[in-house]
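Anyone able to model this chain together with iron/sulfur cluster?
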Amino acid sequence: METPKNPTSIHHRIREGLSRVAMVMRADDWNRAKLAGINPTQLSILELLEGRTDGLGVKDIAFHLGVSQPTATDSIAALERKGYVEKRATENDKRSLKVALTIAGLSALRAGGAVEGATDRATEVLPEYEQEELLLVLVKMIRQLQERDVIPIQRMCASCRYFAPFVHSDAARPHHCNFVDAAFGQRDIRIDCRDHETADPAFRAATWDAFVEG
Ligand code: SF4
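re: yes, here you go
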């Protein structure tokens, strides 16, 4: 049994903490999904497809969500019946179909996104510097998972070809986004940016070093 004299490892306790937060997030997701008459897996698919105008293949969707291909296929079929997604042939290969978000799917997503969850409320009350620290820790953890091929590359600034970290002397807005040609701060770092374009590995590595060395 864990006692102050005999604690479990810090990794174990961080995992316990993350699992409590994840439990509440799952409940938040159910509330959001309910508004659109779908389930959380289907909601995650709509979120994943937003901003990906060319759509994604079933295999990619399954990998991003960490579910099996049959589960992804079933969820996509349910979304298709509701008119929230559609399958499109790709330009280069007419036999290869991609799943894309429809206008109805985007509306359903926005309706769910407007609901404030318990985890939003819990982070809102943290001091601003702690919110920023939490965001940066999450970026670092997500990058570790990417590097280990546990998850695919996410649409984060840290992997984006438009990201130029710490190029401005303004401490409040040291980074530059070359997509919108604007400076921005640590608290504006994106986890899932719709304008993201994945940089090549050498650029990603150099950008990451510059970002963490700050
Ligand atoms: S396009 Fe998005 S992900 Fe890329 S640097 Fe700009 S804000 Fe970050």
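The chain has two domains: 10-113, 127-213.
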